[in-house]
Design a protein that fits this description.
The chain is mainly alpha-helical and 166 residues long. It has helices at 2-23, 28-58, 88-95, 97-108, 117-147, 160-165, and strands spanning 71-75, 80-84. It contains six helices and two strands; from the N terminus they run H-H-E-E-H-H-H-H.
């Protein structure tokens, strides 16, 4: 009976780990790299937009370095307008690329470490294989105990195909 409980505990632990991995499709390192690229691109766009605003002012047009353009779409069901504005280029450029990057990377520190995509794929495959083996061992043990006259409740999430195959 202790062997069965040990098997079930290992199954629970692997299923829990699998859910954690699935819940975080990107690792902290991947999110950090993505964050750096997004901030760098926003800074490039912001510098360009501010440069255009300054050039227009030099050409005698109104100086409007803080103006932003937005795109909107009408939602036919409610007749409301959805408005989308990306202030990232302007904010990153005005607040400073390094400072914004530092703040966003600090926020990434709160993420679990996670796994990079290749390691994630390999770990999920290993968990699936281990779960298959453990669940087969569990069912074999249940059948052994039932043959000895011991009544055992199967886990509610036990895989029917493994029960039928035994």
């Amino acid at each position: 009976m202790n062997e069965l409980e040990a098997l079930r505990e290992r199954i629970r632990a692997l299923k829990s780990e699998r859910l954690e991995i699935i819940a975080q499709p990107l690792s902290r390192a991947t999110v950090q790299r993505l964050t750096e690229r997004v901030v760098d691109e926003a800074h490039r766009q912001g510098k360009r937009a501010l440069g255009i605003a300054i050039a227009r002012a030099a050409a005698g047009q109104a100086l409007a370095p803080l103006s932003v353009r937005a795109s909107g779409a009408i939602d036919g069901a409610t007749g409301t307008a959805k408005l989308s504005m990306d202030l990232s280029p302007l904010l990153v450029t005005l607040l400073g690329q390094d400072r914004v990057k530092e703040l966003l990377l600090q926020a990434c520190d709160d993420l679990p470490e996670g796994l990079d995509p290749p390691a994630r794929i390999l770990r999920l495959a290993k968990i699936d294989a281990d779960l298959e083996a453990l669940e087969r061992d569990e069912e074999d043990r249940i059948v052994e105990l039932e043959n000895q006259g011991v009544s055992i409740m199967r886990r509610p999430d036990a895989r029917p195909e493994l029960i039928i195959a035994t």
